[in-house]
Amino acid sequence: MQNEMSPYHPMDEYKQALDTVSYRDSEAFYAVQEQYRSEKYRIYDLGIFDLMLGGVIFLATIMQCTRILAAPRIVIVLLAIIVPLLSGSGQVVGLELSAQRDTFPSWADTLAIPFVGVIFYCFFSLLFSLCHLGYLQDCRGDSISLTKCPSKWLAGLIVLNLIFMVSSAFDGAWWEVFPSVLWLYYFASIGSRLHWGA
User: Fold this and answer.
1) Cβ(102)–Cβ(18) below 8 Å
2) Which of 21-30, 32-41, 70-79 has the lowest mean pLDDT?
3) Is 4 exposed, middle or buried (0-12, 13-18, 19+ CB in 10 A)?
4) Looking at residue 146, what DSSP letter applies?
5) pLDDT tens across 92-104, in order?
6) DSSP-assigned letter for residue 37
7) Where in the sequence is the domain holding 188, given as residue range(s)?
8) What is the Cα 128 distance to its own chain's centre?
9) 3 state SS of 8
10) Does residue 50 belong to any structural domain of this protein?
11) Number of domains in the chain
């Protein structure tokens, strides 16, 4: 369709500007993209983000938040393993979308380096999440906490996740919705067990 919004506008001028960019001049390449980028992908991503977040809020409402936070220990343990992997998968989706949308210059012909970064992220975030399972022992009276004030620590992590979600919302990073919500759920579930006992 002729009236369909293009990712860069005007497209002819954008292509001409790209032709003037020297090989491996990444700074100039991204400057041209920033100058001619339209709101097409941003509107698309924000729409998907809002739909996914709305679905999560709807499910949380009908299931009742207090019941959701009363998660069995096995669910929390599974979350400690699944959430870092899901979060890494979200980053892979973001990289693939960027590649499909020609966000990277032609000389960046491989995503191998970013993918290696995702692998390291998954490894360290998995260690991070598993360490927090020690808080579950506190519910039985054992003292193997990561900090002397676990409630404040967990509250800080929840706030950081909320800030990250707001940042993702501005960027329209819909692939970060479920991982962010599950990180929130994971830390909130541990916090609820520390507060009410289990």
Assistant:
1) no
2) 70-79
3) exposed
4) S
5) 999 999 888 888 8
6) B
7) 71-196
8) 16
9) strand
10) no
11) 1
